[in-house]
Amino acid sequence: MALDQMSARERTMVTAFGIIFGVIAALLVPLRVSSWLGGKQHDNDDLRQAIQDVQAARARLATRRAALGDVAARYANKAPPLGTLVDAAAKSAGLEIAVQTDVAPVPRGKLYMERATKLSIQKTGLKALANFLEKLETSGHPVAITQLDMSKRIEADSFTVSLTLSAYDRIEPAAASSGPPAAGSTKHP
In the chain, what are the domain boundaries? Predict the structure, then answer.
């Protein structure tokens, strides 16, 4: 039905409806686009903040890495046999080790091996024990006290101590030999 075939009242209503639809469309589209752009801006602000946080964390991580040193560098100084290390530290601290028992090495992941020794100290004071533990800690080797049990004795400043000292060695992965086969060796399929 064409517009000129409608009555005046119908034409007024269709025109009013068209104007209302046009106004709504003219207002709704920009509002919707503005809302969408506001959401994108909020997302961009969140991403910008995340990037700034990562940049700040990189600086903190670099300082932390510098403080801790490279992992490979820490394990470069392989610990000597634990008996030798314990005897030297005990001698300089004035301690007497009653029993020392080596424990079989245990793999710790693919790159590390843990060697351990169990120590028993029958009678010691706290100062001598602290000096002994400090000598072990500052030895420059990757060692740790992994177990420590202390019990008070009747005498003043006298303790019975049992502890486990562990040393961690980095296992270097076997380098695949890419050189030519040795003379006299044959390769069979």
Answer: 8-68, 82-170
User: Average pLDDT of 152-177?
Assistant: 79
Q: Does domain 82-170 have CATH number 3.30.70.60?
A: yes
Helix, strand, coil percentages for the chain (3-state, nearest 5): 50, 25, 30
Mean pLDDT score of the chain, rounded to an integer? 81
pTM (2 d.p.): 0.53
| Lowest-confidence region among 61-65, 100-104, 170-174 | 170-174
Q: Starting at the edge strand that comes first in sequence, how are the strands of the sheet with 143-152 ordered?
A: 99-108, 112-124, 159-170, 143-152
Strand-pair partners of 144: 166
Exposure class string for 84-104: b at 16+ Cβ within 10 A, else e: ebbeebbeebebebeebeeee
